[in-house]
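User: Quick sanity check before I run a bigger batch. Here is a single chain. Can you write out its predicted 3D structure?
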Amino acid sequence: MQITKHRVAAIHYTLKDNQGNILDSSEGRDPLYYIQGIGNLIPGMEEGLEGREKGEKFDIRVTPEKGYGELNPQLIQKVPKAAFGGQEVRPGMRFSTNRGETVTVTEVDQDTVTVDGNHPLAGVDLYFEVEVVDVRPATPEELQHGHVHAPGGHHHE
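Assistant: Done. Predicted structure follows.
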């Protein structure tokens, strides 16, 4: 059975950046289960998985346009250090804005803090090593809910 729209696929993967650094991996964990064609994964990943079958091992390169987008310089801003209410602020810390967006602190000066609202992987080519572990049709309930349910059903609270 091939991975096509509305099929559940289980994959093992290792994600690397442009320099070959491992950013994420399912190694030592359960495979990642998702429903193909409904936006559970970034577009480039879904495109690279389309038509694949159980047992296949392959690589997928995802460009920023099909991943987390290009780096948008307008999402990088300097804000007054006072906006953080006197708490200690260090590079790498993440904060939610009043609009519900997440920003990452990239630089701290005496009076200002530089924050970046881009996704941490924006502007990065992504390299996935993938193994397809299983493929099956999604159930009507999974399609209605928009996600895969564990064996034995799924209970919403």
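Residues 152-157 have pLDDT under 50 and may be disordered.

User: Great, the batch can go ahead then.
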